[in-house]
Amino acid sequence: MHITQLNRECLLHIFSFLDKNSRKNIAKTCHKLLEVFQDPLLWSFLNFHSPEELKKDNFLLGPALKHLSICWYSERVKVCNIEDWMKNSLQKDFCKRHENTVSDFLLDICNRCPSLLSLTLSGCGHVTDDCILQLLKNCPNLKSLKLENCVRITDHTLEAVTLHGASLQTLHVDFCRNVTQAGLERVREKCPSVMLRAERSANMIPDSKPEKKLMLEKASRKLVQL
């Protein structure tokens, strides 16, 4: 029996075991398999391992998407986590190539995937509070928001959760150094039913302006001298 003789349910089941590239390659072989590739039921979950993967034409976005994960664990993530004023020209060029990639993708999610239930972002150092705010507004059914090592996330995201996260049940802001204890306490007070986790976040050294850091360094040196 040829694969195209299988019914649609069987083909969808087979496709579900394949990665995005394999699905795309098989879809190029005939019209029937292309139709299976384009079936919304196949794209209720999307998992990406780098910003570059978001640019590939090997997946579909639509109202069927329920779970989205963008987790970047490469050593290059460390470059994105450096404060902008501390980056050298090479590091700035590296970041410039993808700094808007994840944010633009999430804004596309806001417009095309209103039924999103869970979002996980790890190592996405250029994602901002405004981006998460828009997502919370446009995806009212979001139940799980997990952010790890997203350095531009601040208490503004936590405030957005209290205002627009009516369906939220789980919130993680692990290793987000610009989240404060005061912001976390506000979420606990206003959203007591949300399972909140913030590993290391409020205990890390937050970003600050170069002048302020210089003053802190001078004060530290004086203390050492004393």
How would you characterize this protein structure?
It is a single chain. The protein has 226 residues and is α/β, with parallel strands linked by helices. It folds into 2 domains: 1-42, Monooxygenase (Up-down Bundle), CATH 1.20.1280; 44-224, Leucine-rich repeat, LRR (right-handed beta-alpha superhelix) (Alpha-Beta Horseshoe). Helices cover 42% and strands 12% of the residues. The protein has 10 helices and 6 strands, in the order H-H-H-E-E-H-H-H-E-H-E-H-E-H-E-H. It has helices at residues 8-15, 20-27, 31-37, 77-81, 89-96, 101-112, 129-138, 155-164, 181-190, 210-225; strands spanning 45-48, 67-71, 118-122, 144-148, 170-174, 195-197. It has a 6-stranded parallel β-sheet, with helices on one face. Strand 4 (144-148), helix 8 (155-164) and strand 5 (170-174) form a beta-alpha-beta unit. It is globular and about 65 Å long. The N and C termini lie far apart (84 Å). The model has no long low-confidence stretch (mean pLDDT 91).
List keywords for this structure.
alpha/beta; Monooxygenase; Leucine-rich repeat, LRR (right-handed beta-alpha superhelix); six-stranded parallel sheet; 12% strand; globular
